Write a sequence for this structure.
């Protein structure tokens, strides 16, 4: 059962995968605005500016409970074997 | 240790171009190589000729430097060591007695003293330099330590101390004198593990002389960074810092405390830190960390005197220290990181002396357990707590140092600073409100800039901070609730005001609206938690905390944007922005869950959003590609919308929108069946079951499979041949829509079929012949569906229908009736090939394919529960729980303070903050003087409002004028008795309507007001218009009923009011009867039905109320019938039962028993009640 496999996945791993997915989606959805921010006068070049942007974007993961995060990550993992079966 | 000999070549050649060249007036001293101790003795013998003295000292210095630097295994080294030892032996005082008067190295000391008299700077500098080297050398060898200690003791003699002090406070340009002296002191204090540190500190008037000033003598000017300070030629500051740190290292805790209390030294140490070279910054930070902050022996107050707000600010300035060169960054830690960890420890650890324990949301000087007289609490409520409204513009705090320090930080521009501020907020919650009150100038006006994003991130984190335990960081709740303004400031920090948030939501940059939405989501979640804490059962005064909770929600609403703006923002989000859509839908859902009173006021029709979401999801599942995580995310958005649909009364599940092929219900069914594997669908399933039950699509009796056969069948057909599905959906949608429109019709035909089936098959009447009405409607619609249909459609239907019937049969529905239906359907299929074959498939509830899709097993559990439970019991609800559920505070309770407060308020505040309502409700006060005064004040308020520029001033003025006119002229003397409750309640609720022109009752209230200047005090205003007439605005029927019920509850307060409720004949009968009839509407949602129960509960609190309810309104059978419409084990059924018990316990039982001939008693006892 795919769900059983996924349940074994430790909490930390799920959180890390979810954060990476969240960032990927956010940068995709707000690509245009992010470019504008990066060209704003007060944007610090170098790692500090980027660190602040990433920090600001990824804190939104707090909106999702660990259960919700697992749901989303598990969806990705259970699809692939199903697709292979087809 | 570095030496100072290279005054020529290198420096002059331009080692440091920025460094000012020192003009050397004297020639470099001469020197000679030393071969014997005798020679050394002669060289250092006191001589009044300073040239000779310098020659001797310079020779000795070179000799010592060689000793320190050379290889210690060579014979040369041994020889030199011997020479030195012999020399030291020769200069040693003979006895201890002698040592008191004379000293070690008498010649050198005498030379030093002589130079002091002559003011010879070169010798004054050369002696300490030589002595420092000598001490360093002596400390390296165990057998020479005694000599070293002797030298140290010599230095402690008054003469030498004077000379050192003189050197230390010499002109600040003469670093060549100060630095060697500091080095000498450092060597002395470190000597032999700090053996003589104590006496050196005792002589601090000499040894610490001018230390604060010397700490400020750096190589560079203000603003520059001495990153390229030559490590071999450290500045005076570097030497002073090292001396200070060594002192910290070797002094005992009490002396450390004394040293740290020297404010000017600490200030001098920290002042220049930002300009220091990196190695020195690291030495300072690590030194202070290891020797002070993390040293448990150093008392707390000593740490506190080091870590004052100025020190913290200086360390914080290192956040912007320039990054190190590549060479340095390899072996040195990052300075901003080091400063960050220093500050994190210093500010958040209670043992460091900076952090003081606070009482959470209760400011300093406030006693949350102060006794407030009961009578005052009853009369004035929260207003009786003097400090409740005092902290809107200033919050006194215990953590003064931190509060000052916080103002120096820029959490919006740097992640680490933001982390630090949040960490401080976490350990000192009192600072949150204070921080934003004192930082008012920084606004949240939306702008796509890095600063705005940083600020939004910081505010988000502030909003996610946990609430302090019991609001006061204690194990138990205090007596009084915390100041509301402080709680709100912690949930939605001050910069997040209504205007700024509204502008963010409407901003064209979608990221700004996304950030604002996220902040609002966490704020609402926090509000929810806070309100739950206000309603904690352990509160001593529940009424007071309840009032505070309402006020909190009100203040939150005043600060958060209008829900309409959130709806508009959600509407404008493009379909592919899944994260944004999810967040916005979650926000709306939270509004419905946390502050439904606000959510329901908005005219939000969720249907179109739901339809679009369903359409998008269906399209996605048809494509069978893309990221499954995206699908799961979209599903979360859908779940949010479904939850909203559940809360909003006007959801149309079975009407097909123009651009859609299927109704929302069928679309949802489709989403459920066609969702990709692995996606959790339990919430969707819950909604499907809920709607099916509400719309009577399936029998709701216990044990009936409900929607299970249909879902099972659809999944089965899809797994067999997915190409059938597009032809099945329209047919199914048609059937379900018809069934939902006329459920009774199909129930009747089902009963007819059941009768035919049982009579023709001669079945006993005891067998329950029940099938799902879905089967009946399918049988009816089949001929229309196959008429003119092509082969594909016929194939799809013939694949679907028989399977559905078989599944229904296996699920336990009547086989005979299903056979009848099956025959009827078969008859319609002309083509023999299309005729179905029975699917023989073992059927089990707990192996549903749908269950495989869930990971939590909720569905399975629920199904087995519903089947496993043969007879459920009504849950027992006791009096306290009933009171908690149904008791409503008296909305017209007199708040006499309103008389005093309103004159100082603006027009907006009068209407929006409820002062007008409080004043009007005083007309029911039991004291004639208060009523009279209220009447005069109402007129004054009306005049004030009319003169103001408040937008709705005309209507409010009219209302206030009419009620005062009615109170004084309609044959009623306000001095004789209170105004009838219903009139006052109406006025109060009408004010709420008038302040919002979008309110669905706005037209009706205005029409009523313009009808005449005086109201009939024997009538209940506007009841007929709401109950009998069409709503003025479409889809607002339930909103109007909700308003009316709240108004009715407030209007029912006294026996006289109750009389009005049953005597007053309106068009359809007594008022209460008409209100009770509302509950028979099957589409009415539970919250509204509960309002009716609350009205009844209110009636039971009035004298004679329960008796009237039983004898005049047949309330016993009404409650029985209403309770029976819920599942027997539901909470609602329990509440109905508990209310019945309460009515019985509060009525005149003797009279009621006689009236009903013990019938009522029988009903009550028959239900197992006492």
């Amino acid at each position: 059962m795919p769900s059983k496999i996924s349940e074994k996945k430790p909490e930390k791993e799920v959180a890390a995968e979810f954060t990476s997915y969240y960032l990927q989606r956010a940068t995709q959805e707000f690509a245009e605005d992010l470019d504008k921010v990066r060209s704003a006068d007060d944007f610090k070049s170098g790692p500090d500016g980027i660190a602040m942007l990433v920090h600001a974007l990824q804190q939104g993961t707090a909106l999702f409970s660990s259960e919700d995060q697992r749901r989303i990550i598990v969806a990705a993992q259970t699809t692939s074997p199903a697709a292979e079966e087809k | 240790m570095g030496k100072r000999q290279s005054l020529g070549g290198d420096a002059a050649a331009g080692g440091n171009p920025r460094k000012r060249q020192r003009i050397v007036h004297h020639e470099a001293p001469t020197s000679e190589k030393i071969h014997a101790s005798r020679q050394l003795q002669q060289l250092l013998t006191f001589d009044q000729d300073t040239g000779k003295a310098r020659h001797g000292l310079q020779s000795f210095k070179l000799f010592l430097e060689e000793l320190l630097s050379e290889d210690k295994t060579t014979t040369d080294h041994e020889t030199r060591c011997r020479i030195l030892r012999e020399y030291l032996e020769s200069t040693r005082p003979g006895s201890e007695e002698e040592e008191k008067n004379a000293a070690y190295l008498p010649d050198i000391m005498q030379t030093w003293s002589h130079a002091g008299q002559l003011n010879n700077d070169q010798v004054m500098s050369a002696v300490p330099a030589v002595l420092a080297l000598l001490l360093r050398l002596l400390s390296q060898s165990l057998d020479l330590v005694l000599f070293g200690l002797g030298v140290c003791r010599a230095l402690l003699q008054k003469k030498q101390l004077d000379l050192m002090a003189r050197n230390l406070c010499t002109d600040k340009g003469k670093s060549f004198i100060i630095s060697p002296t500091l080095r000498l002191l450092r060597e002395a204090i470190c000597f032999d593990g700090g053996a003589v540190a104590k006496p050196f500190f005792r002589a601090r008037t000499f040894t610490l002389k001018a230390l604060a000033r010397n700490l400020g003598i750096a190589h560079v000017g203000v603003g520059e960074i001495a990153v390229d300070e030559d490590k071999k030629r450290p500045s005076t500051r570097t030497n002073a810092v090292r001396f200070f740190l060594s002192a910290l290292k070797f002094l005992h805790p009490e002396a450390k405390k004394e040293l740290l209390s020297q404010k000017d030294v600490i200030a001098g140490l920290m002042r220049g830190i930002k300009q220091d070279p990196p190695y020195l910054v690291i030495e300072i930070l690590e030194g202070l960390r290891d020797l002070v902050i993390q040293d448990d022996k150093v008392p707390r107050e000593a740490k506190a005197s080091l870590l004052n707000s100025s020190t913290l600010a200086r360390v914080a300035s290192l956040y912007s220290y320039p990054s190190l060169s590549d060479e340095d960054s390899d072996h040195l830690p990052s300075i901003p990181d080091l400063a960050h960890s220093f500050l994190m420890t210093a500010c958040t650890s209670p043992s460091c002396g900076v952090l003081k324990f606070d009482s959470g949301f209760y400011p300093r000087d406030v006693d949350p357990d102060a006794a407030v007289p009961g009578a005052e609490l009853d009369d004035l409520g929260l207003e009786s707590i003097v400090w409740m409204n005092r902290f809107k513009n200033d919050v006194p705090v215990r953590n003064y140092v931190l509060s000052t320090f916080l103002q120096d930080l820029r959490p919006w521009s740097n992640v680490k600073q933001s982390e630090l501020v949040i960490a401080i907020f976490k350990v000192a919650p009192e600072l949150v409100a204070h921080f934003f009150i004192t930082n008012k100038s920084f606004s949240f006006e939306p702008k796509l800039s890095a600063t705005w994003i940083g600020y939004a991130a910081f505010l988000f984190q502030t909003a996610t901070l946990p609430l302090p335990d019991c609001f006061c960081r204690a194990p138990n709740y205090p007596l009084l609730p915390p100041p509301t303004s402080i709680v709100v400031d912690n949930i939605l920090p001050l910069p997040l005001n209504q205007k700024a948030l509204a502008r963010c939501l409407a901003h064209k940059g979608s990221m700004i609206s996304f950030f604002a939405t996220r902040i609002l989501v966490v704020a609402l979640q926090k509000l929810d938690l806070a309100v739950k804490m206000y309603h904690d059962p352990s509160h001593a005064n529940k009424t007071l905390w309840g009032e505070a909770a309402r006020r909190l929600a009100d203040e939150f609403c005043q600060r958060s944007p209008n829900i309409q703006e959130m709806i508009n923002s959600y509407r404008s989000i493009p379909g592919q922005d899944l994260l944004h859509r999810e967040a916005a839908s979650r926000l709306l859902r939270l509004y419905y869950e946390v502050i439904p009173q606000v959510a329901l006021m908005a005219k939000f029709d969720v249907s179109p959003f739901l339809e679009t979401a369903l359409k998008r999801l269906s399209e996605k599942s048809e494509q069978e590609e893309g990221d499954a995580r995206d699908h799961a995310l979209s599903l979360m958005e859908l779940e949010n919308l479904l939850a909203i649909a559940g809360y909003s009364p006007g959801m149309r599940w079975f009407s097909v929108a123009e651009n859609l092929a299927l109704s929302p219900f069928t679309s949802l069914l489709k989403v459920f069946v066609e969702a990709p594997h692995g996606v959790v669908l339990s919430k969707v399933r819950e909604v499907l079951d809920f709607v099916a039950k509400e719309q009577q699509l399936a029998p709701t009796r216990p044990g009936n499979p409900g929607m299970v056969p249909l879902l099972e069948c659809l999944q089965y057909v899809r797994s067999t041949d997915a190409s059938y599905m597009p032809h099945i959906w329209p047919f199914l949608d048609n059937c379900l829509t018809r069934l939902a429109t006329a459920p009774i019709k199909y129930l009747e035909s089902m009963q007819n079929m059941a009768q035919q089936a049982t009579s023709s098959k001669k079945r006993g009447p005891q067998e329950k012949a029940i099938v799902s009405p879905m089967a009946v409607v399918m049988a009816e619609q089949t001929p229309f569906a196959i008429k003119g249909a092509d082969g594909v459609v016929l194939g799809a239907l013939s694949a679907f229908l028989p399977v559905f019937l078989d599944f229904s049969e296996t699920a336990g529905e009547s086989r005979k009736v299903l056979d009848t239906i099956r025959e009827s359907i078969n008859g319609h299929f002309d083509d023999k090939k299309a005729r179905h074959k029975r699917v023989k498939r073992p059927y089990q509830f707990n192996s549903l394919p749908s269950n495989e899709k869930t990971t939590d097993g909720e569905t399975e559990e629920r199904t087995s529960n519903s089947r496993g439970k043969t007879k459920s019991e009504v849950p027992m609800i006791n009096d306290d729980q009933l009171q908690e559920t149904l008791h409503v505070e008296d909305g017209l309770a007199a708040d006499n303070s309103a008389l005093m407060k309103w004159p100082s308020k603006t027009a907006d505040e009068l209407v929006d903050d409820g002062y007008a309502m409080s004043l009007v409700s005083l007309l029911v006060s039991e004291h004639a003087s208060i009523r009279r005064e209220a009447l005069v004040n109402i007129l004054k308020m009306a005049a004030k409002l009319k003169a103001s520029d408040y937008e709705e001033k005309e209507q409010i003025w009219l209302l206030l004028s009419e009620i005062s006119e009615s109170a004084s002229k309609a044959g009623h003397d306000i001095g004789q008795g209170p105004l009838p409750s219903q009139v006052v309640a109406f006025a109060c609720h009408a004010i709420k309507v008038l302040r919002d022109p979008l309110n669905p009752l706005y037209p009706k209230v205005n029409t009523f007001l313009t009808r005449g200047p005086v109201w009939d005090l024997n009538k209940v205003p506007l009841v007929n218009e709401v109950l009998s007439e069409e709503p003025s605005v479409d889809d607002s029927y339930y909103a109007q009923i909700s308003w009316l019920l709240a108004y009715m509850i407030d209007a029912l307060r006294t026996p006289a009011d109750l009389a009005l409720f049953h005597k007053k004949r309106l068009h359809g009968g007594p008022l209460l009867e008409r209100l009770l009839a509302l509950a028979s509407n099957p589409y009415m949602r539970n919250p509204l039905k509960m309002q009716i129960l609350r009205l009844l509960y209110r009636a039971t609190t009035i004298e004679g109320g329960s008796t009237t309810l039983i004898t005049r309104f047949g309330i016993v059978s009404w409650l029985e019938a209403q309770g029976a419409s819920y599942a027997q084990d539901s909470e609602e059924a329990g509440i109905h039962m508990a209310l019945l018990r309460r009515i019985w316990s509060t009525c005149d039982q003797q009279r009621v028993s006689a009236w009903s001939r013990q019938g009522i008693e029988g009903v009550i006892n028959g239900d197992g009640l006492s």
User: Anything to note?
Assistant: The first helix of chain B runs from residue 9 to 12. Chain B has 63 helices and no strands. Chain B touches chain A through 46 residues (CB under 8 Å).
